[in-house]
Amino acid sequence: MYLQHLSFINFKNYAEAELSLAEGVNAFVGNNGAGKTNLLDAVHYLSLCKSYFNPIDSQQIKQGADFFMINGTFQKNGGKEVVACGVKRNQKKQFKRNKKDYQRLADHIGLLPLVMISPYDISIIIEGSEERRKFIDNVISQTDSKYLDELIAYNKVLANRNSLLKQIADKGRYDPELLSIYDEQLVSSGTRIFEKRRVFMDAFTEIFNRHYQFLSQDAERVELAYESPLLQDNFATLLKKNMERDRILERTSLGIHRDDLQFNIHGMSMKRFGSQGQQKSFLIALKLAQYTFLTQTKGFKPLLLLDDIFDKLDDNRVTKLMQMVSNNNFGQVFITDTSMERVQAIFEKINVEVKLFKVTEGNIDA
Ligand SMILES: Nc1ncnc2c1ncn2[C@@H]1O[C@H](COP(=O)(O)OP(=O)(O)OP(=O)(O)O)[C@@H](O)[C@H]1O
């Protein structure tokens, strides 16, 4: 599967752009702020119906314009997939596959899988647990169409249960039957999500370890572990045990909405003790593991978007990473960088053909 043709209008700093892409490596080179990341984000829209960086669609419309439009033609299984995404100010986002509107955007997720590696991923290490749950949920939902629905259902019951807990605190009385209905729904939905995350993390951790060892050439010992209260006890028991606490806090204090991932280096926290290069290597290994996992479960290769990948990695790690690209492990790859010389030198060294694009202030030239 690959993106053959891409065009967009009024998207971020671009008035208009149109490009034909190579099936292998495409590199976008330009100065800071030229629009390289914006271009990758346009590709992200076509795959996941949203920006990688900013959840507010209207903020992606070029300043002064009142809509944006992104069109892409993909080659998949010998046929074409034509995808279009349009956003007008104050209107619902339009998303079409082969000229037909989607009833639900969730139905598109997983059709054209994609993995992005970006400097913003550092939030997965340094920010709160929500970022790490988002990462797991993103990978699973690209391979399991029911997973997103399950999450939506869980969050709805969780919100209902939390407002009931508030009512209990405000009014001092409540309907115990309603609480037990919510508990039952929360337990059945939460347990299903937990099982999916657990099975996924078992397979994923093994792939991650392999990628990290390859990238770092076995220089460091790192650990990735899934943390969930449901690993200790079943959800129904946990809810019962915590009822008093939940009533005092006026919210559900335990559940899969508190799951987390633990990242360690030599037995210590990656966030506090990892160097910038080690943290970056960790994130790249996480994302490459996502790539391998998606390839294995889908049976074809996702798009790989590498934003500013060479920064802060030593030459050995850059060579290792690019060796993986050259070993034909990857399908279509998009790379951004600020230096034409560096990109050319890296790909010459590993003898891989690359299609080069120059990006200058909202213009792209092949
Ligand atoms: N809605 C918008 N309208 C107009 N310009 C925008 C909009 N959103 C972002 N921009 C502009 O896009 C530019 C940033 O582009 P981008 O992040 O793609 O740069 P880049 O080439 O990846 O740079 P770097 O090398 O620094 O990562 C900024 O100048 C920003 O002001």
The CATH topology of the largest domain: Rossmann fold
> What's the shape?
globular
| CATH-derived architecture of the largest domain | 3-Layer(aba) Sandwich
**Sequence of secondary-structure elements:** EEEHEEEEEHHHHEHHEEHHEHEHEE
How big a fraction of the residues is strand? 15-25%
Q: Which CATH class of the largest domain?
A: Alpha Beta
Structural class: alpha/beta
Helix content: 40-55%
Number of helices: 11
Keywords: ATP-binding, Cytoplasm, DNA damage, DNA repair, DNA replication, DNA-binding, Nucleotide-binding, SOS response
Protein name: DNA replication and repair protein RecF
Subcellular location: Cytoplasm
Domain RecF/RecN/SMC N-terminal: 2-346
Task: Put the structure in a nutshell.
The protein is an alpha/beta fold and 366 residues long. It has helices at residues 36-48, 122-126, 129-141, 145-171, 176-216, 235-241, 243-249, 270-273, 276-298, 315-326, 340-349, and strands spanning 2-11, 14-20, 25-29, 67-76, 79-88, 94-97, 100-101, 114-117, 222-227, 260-265, 268-269, 303-306, 333-337, 354-360, 363-365. The chain has 2 domains: 1-113 and 302-365, P-loop containing nucleotide triphosphate hydrolases (Rossmann fold); 129-300, RecF/RecN/SMC, N-terminal domain (Glutathione S-transferase Yfyf (Class Pi), Chain A, domain 2), CATH 1.20.1050.
